[in-house]
Structure prediction request, 196 residues.
Amino acid sequence: MAQKLPFLCGPAALIRFLNWRGSSISNSLRNQIDIWRTANTIFMGQGAAGCDGAGLVRAADRLGETLTIVRTQPRFSFAGTVRDPLKKKVIAGVEHDNIAFARGRGLLGRFTGWDETMEELKARPLLVLCSMRAYSRSNEFHWIACRPARRGAELHDPLAGQYETGLDERFAASFRAEGMVPALSRVRRHVYDIIF
Prediction:
């Protein structure tokens, strides 16, 4: 299930995640764009912005799916990825609205620490926002989906070989060999949001 455009990793990963949970939503460009519009209505001068985690929770809610987000680094904001003060303000405002939505619906979980959170979530499929520095030299952020498997874990990268910044095969291999929790724990400083 590949993302259809460079900024649609969040919607593509969310669709795979929802499919794993039993949803029949298709991975069409239309569905990816609909999710993106619900999660993030920002289009900046450089192009479309990605989706924040609370925005994806909001989009899932609109689809009738109840998800929870845990922010492992609550101070993180996509506003920090742009230089223009107006763009920073717009992005921060959208993120604030999305977080307020999640908090108001009881969908904003409490991060109690890495080990405790991973222990609670180890048997569930997860949607994870991480810095691509976890597995490449890229400074971008990327949504992936992962779930436990009989051996190791299954990792879904919406880039799936597209563009120049796909997952490093060693990163994907670590999920298959070690499992979801050890693989994520090794790159925990690069993990920002976890949705389940």
